[in-house]
Write a structure and sequence with these properties.
Structural class: alpha/beta
CATH superfamily of the largest domain: P-loop containing nucleotide triphosphate hydrolases
Low-confidence stretches: none
Helix content: 40-55%
Number of strands: 5
Shape: elongated
Radius of gyration: 19 Å
Mean pLDDT: 78
CATH class of the largest domain: Alpha Beta
Order of helices and strands: EHEHEHEHEHHHHHHH
């Protein structure tokens, strides 16, 4: 079975669901705190103790887009070494374009669009999100900075409300949903500062 690589907002959940559907997990998902070289050794160890059962042993690995080059190389070798074995390795990533091209070439990619929790705007921030949207349309950088910075510790919630509003308008267009997700990646996966988020907001037209 060619390894599946789920990518997008709900990739991890979809990978876990598939692992339960096609087999029996031999351990918890590997790499949640950042994929490391040692994780590949853990996968090999789990494969050697997969036991016997009615279903094939499975394991979920990711996010592989956050893996270091060394970890990616180790994972690729693990995929090759276990290719003929019973273990089914299911990969996931937030952003496909940050995954090693070699790993991409060895997998079947499956886009996982935002789930309902992501696309529903946070109502308490809807008014601010509308103001932010208007500032973006006008390319008013200082206004965008004021609105996001003014949210203080809740700037990520404000930007998620904006993402939800935008996503609702493009759900019938998968390509635009993917573009929206990639654009706001630093916000939605909790990385970066609000200044980095402002740069992401202003990098291109809505």
């Amino acid at each position: 079975m060619t390894p599946r690589l789920f990518h997008g907002p709900s990739a991890r959940d979809k990978a876990v669901s598939l692992s339960l559907e096609i087999g029996r997990p031999v351990g918890d998902p590997v790499g949640d705190k950042g994929l490391k070289v040692d994780d590949s050794r853990e996968i090999v160890e789990l494969a050697s103790h997969s036991g016997i059962g009615d279903k094939a042993p499975t394991i979920v690995v990711g996010p592989i887009d956050q893996a270091s080059p060394e970890a990616s190389d180790a994972l690729l070798k693990t995929l090759e070494d276990l290719a003929e074995g019973p273990l089914r390795i299911i990969l996931w990533a937030d952003f496909l374009n940050e995954v090693s091209p070699t790993i991409q070439s060895r997998t079947i990619q499956i886009w996982c669009p935002p789930d309902k929790l992501w696309i529903d705007p946070l109502s308490q921030y809807s008014e601010q999100a509308n103001k932010l949207f208007e500032a973006l349309l006008k390319k008013d950088q200082s206004r965008v900075l004021d609105l996001v910075g003014g949210a203080r510790d809740n700037w990520a919630d404000l930007l998620q409300a904006l993402c939800g509003s935008l996503a609702q308008h493009v759900l019938s267009e998968p390509k635009r949903v993917l573009e929206t997700w990639n654009r706001f990646r630093l916000v939605l996966d909790g990385r970066g500062s609000f200044l980095v988020a402002v740069d992401a907001l202003l990098e291109r037209d809505i």
